[in-house]
Amino acid sequence: xxxxxxxxxxxxxxxxxxxxxxxxxxxxxxxxxxxxxxxxxxxxxxxxxxxxxxxxxxxxxxxxxxxxxxxxxxxxxxxxxxxxxxxxxxxxxxxxxxxxxxxxxxxxxxxxxxxxxxxxxxxxxxxxxxxxxxxxxxxxxxxxxxxxxxxxxxxxxxxxxxxxxxxxxxxxxxxxxxxxxxxxxxxxxxxxxxxxxxxxxxxxxxxxxxxxxxxxxxxxxxxxxxxxxxxxxxxxxxxxxxxxxxxxxxxxxxxxxxxxxxxxxxxxxxxxxxxxxxxxxxxxxxxxxxxxxxxxxxxxxxxxxxxxxxxxxxxxxxxxxxxxxxxxxxxxxxxxxxxxxxxxxxxxxxxxxxxxxxxxxxxxxxxxxxxxxxxxxxxxxxxxxxxx
Length: 388
Fold this sequence. Notes:
Blueprint: H1 2-30, E1 44-50, H2 57-65, E2 74-81, H3 87-92, E3 99-104, H4 109-119, E4 124-128, E5 133-134, H5 138-143, E6 151-160, H6 170-190, E7 201-204, H7 217-227, E8 231-242, H8 249-268, H9 275-278, H10 280-291, H11 296-305, H12 314-335, H13 345-368
Parallel strand pairs: 1-2, 1-4, 2-3, 6-8
Antiparallel strand pairs: 4-7, 5-8, 6-7
């Protein structure tokens, strides 16, 4: 029985980290579904929800106003969610350049986004974070796929700015997003990207659904186009840059919040898990957003069961030693956080991996206990934490 449990855990891990990604890549090469693009410039509304973003909002607006896109086709709306710093004053200073400020009472990001969309006039809604900087041609690349009537949403390409030498876990963070980018490309080639990231994405105005509280808004908003029978594709040339997040206790709390809201978002959009209606996308969604989030279970099982197999041969002895070494390196990465030694890949990648799955465990407990996270106070650091 112990052997069966061990190999069942190995099989689950193998499916999540090897088999499923391989299937996605292979499908992207063999079953392509091309879509049409052109250089048209439909009316666009850029929506930025902000809460106490005085350190970033000026640079963000300068960046948006400098994009390669016709000014008469571009609307910029900042929905300030009860900001009590200088955010509103800074945004108001751009009124003569066409930037619209919605000074809202504190209600959370979902409410701010819903209010901004209600005030938007563009045919295409572009969503972005206050600390995301677009490359000059990002907006044109983002709207180009809307020339195809089957495309309802476009996920942009989030990239990280050069890391700080002492941000432990940043190598792991960047490795994850590099992997995620490759998956989105393969998914998009054969159908739909799983979802968009809040740094940069767009949907047709007609397909917007009210964002419920307690969920990751980018996931719910972007996947809503799939639920309505349209494609969500990936535009690699639509690049937005963000700073690498930190990896201390605050970063753990941030990941718990994001994963809790992410799992709740899957529950809200659970209709997409129906393979009879959504085909391979349902498998993609389940494998990526549910199975992968629950990988802390087989990881814990392997660690607990492996010692009982020590006398079964060299293979089980090696796997036990490798597990101890991996978690030992993760512990070193945690203890040496924010130091140059701790930022070495040998320590930072195991640390980031463990951080992710510890956060996934807590997030799963939150879901099982019915806990919702509607909003929270930002914790600005040298590398800024997310504001909701």
